[in-house]
Amino acid sequence: MSKKNHHGGAWKVAYADFTTAMMALFIVLWLTSQDQRIKDAVERAFRNPFTSVTKDSVGLIPNKDATAVRSSTGNFDSASVMELTMLRRLNEDLLKSLQSEGEDNSSVKLDLTPEGLCINVFDRSHKPVFEPQSIKFTSYGEWVFSTLAWEISRYHGFYVELEGHTETGNPPIRPDYGDWEISADRAAAVRRTLIEHGVPHSQIIKVAGFGDTVPMPTTEPTNEINRRVTVLLNIHPANKST
Q: What's the CA gap between 125 and 242, in Å, rounded?
């Protein structure tokens, strides 16, 4: 009886060997049909399994979505799935918060960029966020930036950069105070508002004014859309050049 049972299990071993061989064949066939990036990633995995993660992925196989928050200049080595998820969730939360109050999207523009989330708040004449030629917020501007502050304060993994901009052609407010000064002071005013509404001061790493030197892409320098404050949320400020 014992001898019979011993021989009766031999087919299981043979079947296991056959299955393993077929799986190996399928893997080889699959690998030969892939592009060079995947082949290189698999090669790295076999050469050194502990450092096989690629710069474009959080796993073995390169992931195109993972490059969504990687700097085009190579400032970020990689972006994790968690960071991507946080960026997208923050973007969605901001859209919901602004739209819930009837925001028509003409004053606030959100863009997911290679560096993070870029929020442009425009100081339009029909819906200003600042008093004319002033760093004082309108009631609408106070609401916009307090809303941004509340949402940003929920995500402590991001660092904040603030940039003030103006359009070309503004007469100076006084001889020693023009576009450069007011754009910097408006960015500083936004910083104070963000901190007052819950954003830790250590989370804000840059406050700058650019005057009329950085117009919006494909926009005439004299267009009022260039009068704005840009709030950039990025992930790895230590890797960014200043």
A: 33
Shared domain check, 86 and 58: no
Q: What is the pLDDT of residues 112-131, one digit of tens each?
A: 887 789 999 999 999 999 99
Same structural domain, 140 and 205 = yes
E-strand ranges in 154-203 read: 159-165
Cβ atoms 133, 108 nearer than 8 A: no
**Entry pTM:** 0.64
Query: Which is nearest to 55 in space by CA: 71, 78, 26, 79?
Result: 78
On whether both 48 and 128 belong to a single domain, the answer is: no
Domain limits for position 62: 2-66
